[in-house]
Amino acid sequence: MLRSLLRRATVPAVCAGLLWGALPAHAQTPEGSPRPVSSDDWADRATGTYRTLQSQLYEGRDQHGLYLEHTPRQAGDPEHSYLWPFREAAAAAVDMQELPRTGPAYRRDAAERFDTAELYFTAGERPGYESYLPAPLGTGGDVYYDDNAVVALSQLDQYEATGDRGLLKRAEQVVPVVARAWDGDTAKACPGGMDWYDSPDNNIRATNVTALSAQLAARLYEHTRNRTYLDQAEKWYGWVYSCMRKAPGLYLNDRGDDGSTNETLWTYNSGSMIGTATALYRGTGDARYLKKAVADARGSLAHWTEGSRLHDQPAVFNAFYFKDLLDLDDVRPDAAYLKTMSAYADSTYKTNRDASTGLFRFQPSNGGDYDPDAPAATLNQSAMVQIFATLADATHHDRRS
Q: What are the angstrom distances between the C-alpha of 195 and each of 58, 188, 192, 250, 374?
């Protein structure tokens, strides 16, 4: 998933502060508090952003239901999008199904996305979803284990939304794919962890793969009570917690086979560990996991809401993070989670959206300030759909506001 994403310095702008008191003055009441955005307003924003995604980046059923990487198409773009942006478009359709009142209208779109996702899958001795379409539609690509984990997590989301047991089975079939990423070399520093992608050239064990795979296994255990999934989830979660945790809620990006560590922090690594601990708590009733989830949520919020940190993160990573916070909120409510998500979403809607087209534009890092020269991306447009649709559903059911 990470590919060549690099954090780039951005100049703090009017939306740099993500606490409620830092919103633009026009978004605040006379008393200085921001006007809350209603569930209907979030639904309208989700609907408009999704329509733009479909009109500007979706290629249509005559193009196999695929998406463009960018609009306008860039010189180095493939004919169709890579797997990761496609997965985010699928996740956007899943979330649109949950909109109050209008959600059922998106069920066909969501179902289509999961049929189309299989175009990225390759069978054989080392099966998996490839980073790009294999023949006959494309030239194929490496099997990135984080991509595979998130595809399966979306399959689980869709199973929970529809009850389609075929999607539960499909998610289960991804577990052996990610399980082969586990590095069993006990001679390495902090033995264990999962390789980033399936290649002899891989030389890192990545937090994202290991934590997302743990989240997948933990959620599968909830649905199947298969003890193997619980054992895997606890082992994979335990490695990240013991080997990659810098501080509560903050996890280093990867550990090199040479003993080095990449200390870059990403919001989705915070989120996947919160989400895994929450799922483990739900599945086992072990309060120690809930305690860890709450500690990571509080620690990560303290870090990410400081200055422009959340604003500067890739929008898609924030979508992961917010959903995991709201997952925890369902079992241990904390108004700070929804408040932080709402503030980020409202600020980003006002500052990163091209009102003339409905397209969202960010820095080359996929986060940060509006860049008028940047192409709009399926990845980012889909992320904002997910955030707005999730907020529409969450605020519709929230009784604290």
A: 32, 13, 9, 20, 32
Burial of 342 (0-12, 13-18, 19+ CB in 10 A): buried
For 115-145, letters b (16+ CB in 10 Å) and e give ebbebbbeeeeebbbbbbbbeeebeebbbbb
In 3D space, the residue among 165, 293, 284 whose CA is nearest the CA of residue 219 turns out to be 284
Beta bridge partners of 34: 28
Phi then psi dihedrals of residue 197, to 5 deg = -145, 165
**Cα-only R_g, the chain:** 20
Round to whole Å and give the CA distance between 96 and 105: 9
84-113 pLDDT, tens digit per residue, is 999 999 999 999 999 999 999 999 999 999
DSSP symbols for 378-393? HHHHHHHHHHHHHHHH
pLDDT at 351 over 70: yes
Nearest-angstrom CA–CA distance, 137 and 123: 15
Cβ–Cβ < 8 Å for 146, 1: yes
Residue 100, preceding peptide bond in cis (omega within 30° of 0) = no
Q: Which residues make Cβ contacts (< 8 Å) with residue 90, sequence separation at least 6?
A: 110, 113, 114, 116, 117, 154
Q: What is the pLDDT of residues 187-237, one digit of tens each?
A: 999 999 999 999 999 999 999 999 999 999 999 999 999 999 999 999 999
The two three-digit tokens of residue 54, written as one number: 């479909």
What would the two tokens of residue 12 be? 């703090």
CA dihedral 269, 252, 378, 99 (to 10 degrees): 10
Length of the chain in terms of residues written: 401
